[in-house]
Amino acid sequence: MREPSPVKRGAYSALALLLGINLFNYIDRQVLAAVEPSIRATFFAAGDVNAMAISGTLGSAFLVTYMLSAPALGWLADRLSRWLIIGSAVILWSLATAASGLAMTFAMLFATRVFVGIGEGGYGPAAPTVLADLFPLETRGRILAAFCAAIPVGSALGYVLGGAVLTHFTPVPIAERWRWAFLFAAVPGFLLGIISLLQRDPRAATGARPERQRATRKDYRTLARTRSYVLNCAAQTAMTFALGGIGFWAAEYLRSRGQPPSATQTFGALIAGTGLLSTLVGGWLGDRLRKRIPGSYFLVSGLGMVLACPLFIIMLYTPFPRAWWFMGSAVFLLFLNTGPSNTALANVSLPKVRATAFALNILVIHALGDVLAFPTLGYIAGHTNWRVAFIFVSVIMLASGIIWLAGMKYLPADTDAVEKAAA
């Protein structure tokens, strides 16, 4: 049996720094969703039937630039210091988040979200790649799950921050409070970005010659032909459509169900608790089952999505407050895939193309996932109702789970091939 590989020096301090950055990454993203009704009231006339669809383009503006900039910046991260890319990217998106709170027109707000997307396009591919470089295969699922635990917690805190500012920040007129939510979210990310610039790239300590760390066209063709990578991207695309759509329109859905503005804070707390626990459990399960079930990362991801589907549908027909129990159960199952699916991405891509592999994944899952989800669900709800829109989401959940389960048979061989080639 192969001996476990050692954890590299500085690995846990890098994890702590990247975990902190990822936390504010998702706070910056979701604070927009929490204050979206207030933004719409600021820039659109009451009763405008197209307001929701147009407002949904704010999410698309971020994601389109995020997914388009990620391949170019991921390619750079495979060739330059990944910490340089991370630090510069975090500083850029933090400044743009602050600028979102200062926007005087909808067009200006749209532009700031574009720059947030560019910043995150540099961070998204580089950060998990640094962790994959520092931690061995045996513990990578738990480490990336810990890193990804910031997704539900940061998303939840974005809702909590936005809801708290709208409700309690009384020194500012209520119509202007949404601006301060962006300003409060921006400062910590800026400081963490500066710290990132002082870190050393893990590849600098390997002693490998630079030309051996450069990817070739053959390496990229191999990645494109890796079936578990392609199927993982497809499943993550459907999952991203579902989660992104729910996250962006949660505040409006709760309002349509007669819930008070404080319900966004309840939703945030639910995401933080169940999402955090689920993400950690998913990473632990994936690592624990891998010795007995080589395709365990896809098994955990797929079963979570399949089981979440009926619970989410039941939630749509259940009165509040009982509906929170079904929503919490569905959210727990939805987040099980976060650690395992990203670990599978790292495990089936060679180290010298990992940043590019994550970058291409970002491009695909957002181009065909939540970029389409924001206006699509806004359009469906605007012409029918939110129950119909979210039933459509539940069908997408089911499709995601089926794709992951179908990819289980390819994952072990693709992982072994990368481990042998990297060795």
What order do the helices and strands come in, and which of them pair?
Layout: H1 11-43, H2 51-55, H3 57-77, H4 82-100, H5 106-134, H6 137-148, H7 150-168, H8 177-196, H9 210-213, H10 217-224, H11 227-256, H12 263-289, H13 296-316, H14 323-334, H15 338-347, H16 354-383, H17 386-406, H18 411-422
Helix pairs in contact: 1-5, 1-6, 1-7, 1-8, 1-11, 3-5, 3-16, 4-5, 4-8, 5-16, 6-12, 6-15, 7-8, 7-12, 11-16, 11-17, 12-13, 12-14, 12-15, 13-14, 13-15, 13-17, 16-17
DSSP summary: helix tally: 18
For the secondary structure, the number of strands is 0
Mean pLDDT: 86
Instruction: Determine the strand fraction and express it as a percent band.
Output: under 5%
Mass-distribution shape: globular
* Distance between the amino and carboxyl termini: 15 Å
CATH architecture annotation name: Up-down Bundle
Q: What is the CATH class?
A: Mainly Alpha
Order of helices and strands: HHHHHHHHHHHHHHHHHH
CATH topology: Growth Hormone, Chain: A
Number of domains: 1
Unreliable stretches, pLDDT < 50, 5 or more residues? 208-212
Detailed description of the structure:
- Helix 12 runs parallel beside helix 14 and helix 13 (296-316) runs antiparallel to helix 14 (323-334).
- This protein has one domain: Growth Hormone, Chain: A (Up-down Bundle).
- The radius of gyration is 21 Å and the shape is globular.
- It has 423 residues and is mainly alpha-helical.
- Mean pLDDT is 86; it is low at 208-212.
- It has helices at residues 11-43, 51-55, 57-77, 82-100, 106-134, 137-148, 150-168, 177-196, 210-213, 217-224, 227-256, 263-289, 296-316, 323-334, 338-347, 354-383, 386-406, 411-422.
